[in-house]
Write a structure and sequence with these properties.
single chain, alpha/beta, seven-stranded parallel β-sheet, globular
């Protein structure tokens, strides 16, 4: 079963506390998850967001790596076109060395126009840049010199093993890109037709099909002995996350985390955000073969997130075992 923690470390203006408290809580919770034998810790990336959405996930990944021993550290997604691929390869190599090979990247295109303007990157070139940068990073992790854009590049120290890379996205172009690069596919939406297209593209190219990871289950789960009591405590943070994500999505963008509801009633009815009892959480995990817990979702106070995690430890995990 794939049980993981997910973080974007937002703190909207209405939330109590500050970013330093959220970053400290993230590291404490990652260490807790590692000791319980959870599968992974997922870190997200966006830039220039008012609520301070995590903008340096590899820096946080290094800190998580230093506090843990077993969990995989996932960057979902690393927005490759916004970065210098050589500098990014160096950072990834450092995290690989610190973590003893536990880093995984989902290569994402990015979509917010503000981020491309901030980075000075032509958004129209993001597809070709992603493919170019993946190739550059793979060459860089060999530790050997190579030529790129008319200059010699060498990344040292090389990682003991290269990070695992998947291609993200929720379009047919993303499925074809993953096959073209010979990488696994990590769609942003649970759409089996995308997985099938990816497999056909791999077959047509005569290459081995890589793993396909489709998101399963609700986007957010909070465990409570009294869901009716805790829904109102959770709702402001869930509404903030849902409405900001929806406002970012361009036409045609699909994602399991997108909910167009703008009222508490609509958000609750969507089923994307769930406040459940321990027994209901066990059912979700058994049906979906896992769950992604997001204990600081939308700027939730750490104490509120810990309430859910402690119930997971005390009542959900024993039932699964």
């Amino acid at each position: 079963m794939n049980i993981s923690l997910r973080y974007d470390l937002r703190v909207p203006s209405f939330a109590p506390g500050n970013h330093a408290e959220r970053y400290a809580a993230c590291l404490e919770q990652a260490e807790w998850a590692d000791q319980l034998g959870m599968r992974s810790v997922t870190l997200c990336e966006h830039h220039g967001v008012e609520d301070g959405f995590m903008s340096a996930p590899l820096t946080v990944a290094a800190a998580v790596a230093a506090r843990t021993r077993r969990v995989t550290i996932n960057i979902v997604a690393a927005l490759l076109p916004l970065h210098d691929p050589v500098r990014l390869a160096e950072q990834c190599a450092a995290v690989q060395l610190i973590s003893n090979g536990r880093l995984m990247l989902v290569a994402g295109l990015g979509y917010r126009g503000e981020e491309f303007e901030m980075a000075g990157v032509d958004r129209r070139r993001r597809g070709e840049l992603l493919e170019e940068y993946v190739t550059v990073m793979q060459k860089a992790w060999s530790g050997e010199p190579f030529e790129w854009r008319g200059r010699t590049v060498r990344v040292t120290p090389a990682p003991t093993m290269p990070p695992t890379i998947y291609v993200g996205g929720s379009t047919e172009n993303a499925a074809r890109r993953a096959a073209r690069l010979g990488l696994g596919f990590f769609p942003a939406i649970d759409d089996e037709s995308l997985a099938e297209l990816y497999r056909r593209e791999c077959d047509a190219r005569g290459i081995r099909t890589g793993p396909v990871i489709l998101p399963r289950g609700p986007g957010f789960v909070h465990i409570s002995e009294d869901p009716d009591r805790d829904w109102p405590r959770i709702m402001p943070y869930a509404l903030h996350e849902a409405t900001t994500y929806a406002s970012w999505q361009p036409r045609g963008q699909r994602s399991t985390v997108r909910v167009d509801a703008t009222t508490p009633e609509g958000l609750k009815a969507s089923g994307a955000y769930r406040v459940v009892t321990p027994d209901e959480c066990v059912d979700i995990i058994r049906r979906s073969r896992g769950v992604a817990l997001h204990p600081l979702m939308g700027g939730m106070p750490p104490a509120l997130g810990w309430e859910s995690l402690r119930l997971f430890e005390a009542k959900v995990l024993p039932a699964l075992r």
